[in-house]
């Protein structure tokens, strides 16, 4: 039981760390003669000492502060990257992937350590490893962007000093290996929808819905029956415990027209669960990637390598072709609007306005 060196004002008893400090005379009216509080570690004690020194330097210390709240406000102890990433995803309200999977890849290479312990070399090693696994540079950049966002959040929120080691990382020959996604042509969509509707496979019934709404796979696979109107005229894309959304702009209500409504009616009619695709629900989490891989394997085999995401590209092209207003186009697809601050004023487009434009591109074979 002692206090010395760096362990100023602390003492250990029965394995617990206590902060013991005599209060200066001019502050005793507010704080009493001594302060005694149990802490987690010496770093917390050092922070508390620093802050109390600053408070007690004033001649008039005023009302006492709540020491536990003070610790919570000044706790700068480095935290593990995985904890920061979980906090970031929860705060942003976004899907876990690809952010969490990118963090897991990094921690698998460099360890799950305090954020400010990572170096630029960790970023270089990350890129080198992904290149060695034959990942395309576009995929690597996407992973780096996720990591950069998490580190930016950590450095901003927890006052880490220094520079984000994942900022502006270079990738050799970036973009040279990129392959442009080829959208579906209108006649191809009609053929694709017919093949999906007559396949007898529940998952493939999602294809016309994806194509006619421009939704991401997770947004449709994660639908609950409560997100679908009784007459299947519309769907609400909202976050829920089993499926987050990619961005805040992803929250939206969409009309179902043409084969999208027909497919939804059949799916709802044959559903015996609270979820539209309960077969892709595991431990209260939607396995959208699994569903996407299954759909993509089928589509690639029969439609020249095209995937479900090509439907989203085609959706935007089809709306461009009928000169859909850009602000409405972004609202339909859940894209961040480029219309400036004015686009955020008012209530936006109503369901009937959205239905009018979607009807102009609807495929009703």
Report on this model:
By secondary structure, the protein is mainly alpha-helical. It folds into 3 domains: 10-74, no CATH class; 81-157; 186-361, Intergrase catalytic core (hpI Integrase, Chain A), CATH 1.10.443. The chain contains 15 helices and 7 strands. The chain has helices at residues 28-31, 42-56, 67-74, 81-92, 99-110, 120-132, 137-157, 186-197, 206-213, 217-221, 259-269, 288-302, 308-321, 326-333, 351-361; strands at residues 10-13, 16-22, 34-39, 234-237, 252-255, 281-282, 285-286. It has a 3-stranded antiparallel sheet, with helices on one face. Strands 4-5 form a two-stranded antiparallel sheet. Strands 6-7 form a two-stranded antiparallel ribbon. Strand 1 (10-13) and strand 2 form a beta hairpin. The longest helix is centred in the middle third of the chain and has 21 residues, at 137-157. The model is unreliable at 1-6 (pLDDT under 50).
Spans where pLDDT lies below 50 across 5 or more residues: 1-6
Quaternary assembly: single chain
CATH class of the largest domain: Mainly Alpha
Q: From the 3D structure, determine the CATH topology of the largest domain.
A: hpI Integrase, Chain A
Figure out the total of helices: 15
In round numbers, the mean pLDDT is 88
Number of strands: 7
Question: Which structural class best describes the helix and strand composition?
Answer: mainly alpha
Would you list the SSEs in sequence order as H and E?
EEHEHHHHHHHHHEEHEEHHHH
- The portion of residues forming beta strands comes to 5-15%
Largest sheet: 3 strands, antiparallel
How many domains in all?
3
Task: Examine the secondary-structure arrangement and name the CATH architecture of the largest domain.
Answer: Orthogonal Bundle
What would you report as the Rg, rounded to the nearest angstrom? 27 Å
């Amino acid at each position: 039981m002692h206090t010395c060196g760096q362990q100023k004002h602390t003492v250990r008893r029965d394995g617990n760390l206590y902060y013991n400090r005599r209060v200066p005379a001019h502050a005793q009216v507010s704080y009493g003669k001594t302060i005694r509080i149990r802490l987690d570690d010496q770093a917390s004690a050092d922070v508390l000492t620093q802050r109390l020194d600053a408070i007690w330097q004033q001649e008039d210390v005023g009302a006492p502060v709540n020491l536990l709240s003070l610790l919570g406000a000044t706790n700068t102890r480095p935290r593990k990257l995985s904890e920061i990433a979980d906090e970031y995803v929860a705060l942003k309200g976004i899907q876990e992937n690809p952010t969490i999977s990118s963090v897991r890849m990094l921690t698998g290479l460099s360890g799950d350590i305090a954020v400010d312990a990572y170096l630029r070399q960790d970023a270089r090693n990350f890129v080198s490893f992904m290149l060695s696994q034959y990942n395309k540079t576009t995929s690597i950049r996407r992973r780096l962007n996720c990591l950069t966002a998490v580190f930016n959040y950590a450095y901003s929120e927890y006052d880490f000093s220094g520079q984000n080691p994942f900022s502006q990382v270079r990738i050799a020959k970036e973009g040279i290996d990129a392959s442009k996604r080829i959208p579906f042509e209108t006649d191809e969509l009609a053929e694709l929808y017919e093949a999906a509707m007559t396949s007898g496979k529940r998952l493939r019934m999602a294809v016309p819905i994806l194509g006619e709404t421009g939704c991401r796979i997770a947004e449709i696979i994660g639908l609950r029956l409560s997100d679908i109107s009784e007459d299947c005229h519309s769907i609400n894309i909202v976050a829920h415990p089993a499926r987050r959304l990619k961005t805040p702009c992803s929250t939206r209500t969409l009309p179902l027209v043409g084969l999208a409504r027909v497919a939804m009616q059949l799916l709802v009619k044959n559903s015996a669960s609270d979820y539209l695709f309960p077969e892709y629900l595991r431990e209260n989490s939607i396995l959208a990637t699994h569903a996407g891989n299954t759909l993509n394997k089928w589509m690639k085999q029969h439609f020249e390598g095209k995937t479900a995401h090509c439907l989203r590209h085609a959706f935007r092209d089809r709306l461009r072709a009928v000169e859909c207003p850009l602000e409405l186009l972004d609202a339909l697809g859940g894209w961040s609007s480029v219309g400036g601050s004015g686009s955020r004023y008012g209530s936006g487009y109503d369901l009937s306005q959205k239905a009018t434009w979607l009807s102009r591109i609807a495929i009703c074979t």
